[in-house]
């Protein structure tokens, strides 16, 4: 290590010219170099404030810090290019040898069925003619079957693969009369519930168009259409299998290895990979970009779910998105290389996933990954993900360039149907052209935004929720109230879960709309996104989603308790119209009683409100969410009856996302002391602007967007005033 420091950093010198043009050299101390190199591993591109903090800490000038990082990046780039050239030369030699072996094999090829001599030209022509004839017969048979099925279905065509539900996307969560052509922050489900549709669902991408107003809605480009993917060749399958098995081996080694492979982050104390040790042990797969930065972390959790059920979650994208609703925005299985057979030991699929967290100010991340499961021992499984991009595939967003190095988890079976999960996340990100907003820069660029801790905390919380929702009796922690049966309780909890998924999806706001009244000079910090809903289970019409993010000098738990306090809710929530709310039912969704689904009803001394509010909220080690939606009484009675599928109850959720700011955590706090952290809060409202599948030309979008902007801004100001954070 001493020699490497001398080679890489100790000779870094700042050269300055005095009045006599004499050169002065400054050699950094070993302690300074160690701190700079440790910081460089986590953040190779520090901004002005970070350089200033380092200069004060190390007693160096900001320019010295700046020049040191510039030189270090240049040196690292040169070393990477040298290593890449060596790898490429070896790969080139291997391919040449493989090519030569294939040529030799072709010269001596035998007929596969009988092991005889190679087919001649005439035999090949006869074989091709026979195959063409069989293909024509099969096509004719297919057309007859298709015609017959269409007749049986009343003339409806067989749905093609690209019309199947996209696993995460706009959901059927809104409730408003189709005759309402005014801004409506609420629900009025006067229409009968829509019947279930074979292809509809909370995530059907075809049912929603993101548009720019006031022009009529235009269909959005569908980036991940299955019919564009060509079948895999045998050679591709072999290469993908080898890559996946190597990833499994690497994940297992990373889980079993401790220091010096894993070190504690100087930012928040989490375990991160030492990149120098990593590159000595493993094959170097990375982005070919000088701006790429690695993110790595490891965490362990015990969850109330058996290993085989967990494996089933990992390999069914709909369940995957349900268990991680606040992380996985969309997911789709592209290819299945090995069937999902629980009797076997190896499963392999190619999966597309889009990840997004916390706020519209955080850009989503998109991956195409090979996901492989291998059973190592009787009670031990390894699941590994590794990036594997296909040619001619365009992702939806102009998102950061993402590459997933071997990541995943080791699942160990425990007694009583529990599992111990050790999770490893290791990715490379190039967000040079699309950086997160300054509010979320520390959180995302520090590596904790999408780190292993977020996955394990979410997994534990959702496993607790699924376990509690399936019990056949009312727990003592619940308050049944207007909900009389356990089936109705389960229905309400499922409705809250679906509401949470929809709200998390809306936060990505794929298109930002700027209007004339929201100029840079008086920008309120509100971002708007507009979409037209046309599918069943959604309110047909134009919906505006407005969101704003802010930083509060209070710990997350204090902010969460404030938002959960129903005694003062009417002072900031416009849905209450200034009337105090009363709790009608409450169902705990985890070991922490603060995590619950509640039904509220604003009630005055003389007249109860004609509306109820369903709310789902949770708080965990990283933050929390408070999501709620209004329901008219008819919709509310359907929800609490337990006799209506919650997937067909239309609601339009709004809410808050609470998160830590990602800045370095004081040592005293890590050791259990007081929480002095600050909180990042995102508030987002969804509002129906115009009902019906076609909105009129006379809609004044300026007035509508001004109303939405005012609603968000005024709510934020009231909350800040009540928390004394103005």
TrEMBL record:
<keyword id="KW-0175">Coiled coil</keyword>
<dbReference type="GO" id="GO:0000981">
    <property type="term" value="F:DNA-binding transcription factor activity, RNA polymerase II-specific"/>
</dbReference>
<keyword id="KW-0371">Homeobox</keyword>
<feature type="compositionally biased region" description="Basic and acidic residues">
    <location>
        <begin position="1"/>
        <end position="15"/>
    </location>
</feature>
<dbReference type="InterPro" id="IPR023393">
    <property type="entry name" value="START-like_dom_sf"/>
</dbReference>
<dbReference type="Pfam" id="PF01852">
    <property type="entry name" value="START"/>
</dbReference>
<keyword id="KW-0804">Transcription</keyword>
<dbReference type="GO" id="GO:0005634">
    <property type="term" value="C:nucleus"/>
</dbReference>
<feature type="region of interest" description="Disordered">
    <location>
        <begin position="1"/>
        <end position="31"/>
    </location>
</feature>
<dbReference type="InterPro" id="IPR057993">
    <property type="entry name" value="HD-Zip_IV_C"/>
</dbReference>
<keyword id="KW-0805">Transcription regulation</keyword>
<feature type="region of interest" description="Disordered">
    <location>
        <begin position="181"/>
        <end position="207"/>
    </location>
</feature>
<dbReference type="GO" id="GO:0008289">
    <property type="term" value="F:lipid binding"/>
</dbReference>
<dbReference type="InterPro" id="IPR009057">
    <property type="entry name" value="Homeodomain-like_sf"/>
</dbReference>
<feature type="domain" description="Homeobox">
    <location>
        <begin position="19"/>
        <end position="79"/>
    </location>
</feature>
<comment type="similarity">
    <text>Belongs to the HD-ZIP homeobox family. Class IV subfamily.</text>
</comment>
<dbReference type="InterPro" id="IPR002913">
    <property type="entry name" value="START_lipid-bd_dom"/>
</dbReference>
<feature type="coiled-coil region">
    <location>
        <begin position="121"/>
        <end position="148"/>
    </location>
</feature>
<dbReference type="InterPro" id="IPR017970">
    <property type="entry name" value="Homeobox_CS"/>
</dbReference>
<protein>
    <recommendedName>
        <fullName>Homeobox domain-containing protein</fullName>
    </recommendedName>
</protein>
<dbReference type="InterPro" id="IPR001356">
    <property type="entry name" value="HD"/>
</dbReference>
<dbReference type="Pfam" id="PF25797">
    <property type="entry name" value="PDF2_C"/>
</dbReference>
<dbReference type="Pfam" id="PF00046">
    <property type="entry name" value="Homeodomain"/>
</dbReference>
<dbReference type="InterPro" id="IPR042160">
    <property type="entry name" value="HD-Zip_IV"/>
</dbReference>
<feature type="compositionally biased region" description="Polar residues">
    <location>
        <begin position="181"/>
        <end position="192"/>
    </location>
</feature>
<keyword id="KW-0539">Nucleus</keyword>
<keyword id="KW-0238">DNA-binding</keyword>
<feature type="domain" description="START">
    <location>
        <begin position="233"/>
        <end position="468"/>
    </location>
</feature>
<dbReference type="GO" id="GO:0003677">
    <property type="term" value="F:DNA binding"/>
</dbReference>
<feature type="DNA-binding region" description="Homeobox">
    <location>
        <begin position="21"/>
        <end position="80"/>
    </location>
</feature>
């Amino acid at each position: 290590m001493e020699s490497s420091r001398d080679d890489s950093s100790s000779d870094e010198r700042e050269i300055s010219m005095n009045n006599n043009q004499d050169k002065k050299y400054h050699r950094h101390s070993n302690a300074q170099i160690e701190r700079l190199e440790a910081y460089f591993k986590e953040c190779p591109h520090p901004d002005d404030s970070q350089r200033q903090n380092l200069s004060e800490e190390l007693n160096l000038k900001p320019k010295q810090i700046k020049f040191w990082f510039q030189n270090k990046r240049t040196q690292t780039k040169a070393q990477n290019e040298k290593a890449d050239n060596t790898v490429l030369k070896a790969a080139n030699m291997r391919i040449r040898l493989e090519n030569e072996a294939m040529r030799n094999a072709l010269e001596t090829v035998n007929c596969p069925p009988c092991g005889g001599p190679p087919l001649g030209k005439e035999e090949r022509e006869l074989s091709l003619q026979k195959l063409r004839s069989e293909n024509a017969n099969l096509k004719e048979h297919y057309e007859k079957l298709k015609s017959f099925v269409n007749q049986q279905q009343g003339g409806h065509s067989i749905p093609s693969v690209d019309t199947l539900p996209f696993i995460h996307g706009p959901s059927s969560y809104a409730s408003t009369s189709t005759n309402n052509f005014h801004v409506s922050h609420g629900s009025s489900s006067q229409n009968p519930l829509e019947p279930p549709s074979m292809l509809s669902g909370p995530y059907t991408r075809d049912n929603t168009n993101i548009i720019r107003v006031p022009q009529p809605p235009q269909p959005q480009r569908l980036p991940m259409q299955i019919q564009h993917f060509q079948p895999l060749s045998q050679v591709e399958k072999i290469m993908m299998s080898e890559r996946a098995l190597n990833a499994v081996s690497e994940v297992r080694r990373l889980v079993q290895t401790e220091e010096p492979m894993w070190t504690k982050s100087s930012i928040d104390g989490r375990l991160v990979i030492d990149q120098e040790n990593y590159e000595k042990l493993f094959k170097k797969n990375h982005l070919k970009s000088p701006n790429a930065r690695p993110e790595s972390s490891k965490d362990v959790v015990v969850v109330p779910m058996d290993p085989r059920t967990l494996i089933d979650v990992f390999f069914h994208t709909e369940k995957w998105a349900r268990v991680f609703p606040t992380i996985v925005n969309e997911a789709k299985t592209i290819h299945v290389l090995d069937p999902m057979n629980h009797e076997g030991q190896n499963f392999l699929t190619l999966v597309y996933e889009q990840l997004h967290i916390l706020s519209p100010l955080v850009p989503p991340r998109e991956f195409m990954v090979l996901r492989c499961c291998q059973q190592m021992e009787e009670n031990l499984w390894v699941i590994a993900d590794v990036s594997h991009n296909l040619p001619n595939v365009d992702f939806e967003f102009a998102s950061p360039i993402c590459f997933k190095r071997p990541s995943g988890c080791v699942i160990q079976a425990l007694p009583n149907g529990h599992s111990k999960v050790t999770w490893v996340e290791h990715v490379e990100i190039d967000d040079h052209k699309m950086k997160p907003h300054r509010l979320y820069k520390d959180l995302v660029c520090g590596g904790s935004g999408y780190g292993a801790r977020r996955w394990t905390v979410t997994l534990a919380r959702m496993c607790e929720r699924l376990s509690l929702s399936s019990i056949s009796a009312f727990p003592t922690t619940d308050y049944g109230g207007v909900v009389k049966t356990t089936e109705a309780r389960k229905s309400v909890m499922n409705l809250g879960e679906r509401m949470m998924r929809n709200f998390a999806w809306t936060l990505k706001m794929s298109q930002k709309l700027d209007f004339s009244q929201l100029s840079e000079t008086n920008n309120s910090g509100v971002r708007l996104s507009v979409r037209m809903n046309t599918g069943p289970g959604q309110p047909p019409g134009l919906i505006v989603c407005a969101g704003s993010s802010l930083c509060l000098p209070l710990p997350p738990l204090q902010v969460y308790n404030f938002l959960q306090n129903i005694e003062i809710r009417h002072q900031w929530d416009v849905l209450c119209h200034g009337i105090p709310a009363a709790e009608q039912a409450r169902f705990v969704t985890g070991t922490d009683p603060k995590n619950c689904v509640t039904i509220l009803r604003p009630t005055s001394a003389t007249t109860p409100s004609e509306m109820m509010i369903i709310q789902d909220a949770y708080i965990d080690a990283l933050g929390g969410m408070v999501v709620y939606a209004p329901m008219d009484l008819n919709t509310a009675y359907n929800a609490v009856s337990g006799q209506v599928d919650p997937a067909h109850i239309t609601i339009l959720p709004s809410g808050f996302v609470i998160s830590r700011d990602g800045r370095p955590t004081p040592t005293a706090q890590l050791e259990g002391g007081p929480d002095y952290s600050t909180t990042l809060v995102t508030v987002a409202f969804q509002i129906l602007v115009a009902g019906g599948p076609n909105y009129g030309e006379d809609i004044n979008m300026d007035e509508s967007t001004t109303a939405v902007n005012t609603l968000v801004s005024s709510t934020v100001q009231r909350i800040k005033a009540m928390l004394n954070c103005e």
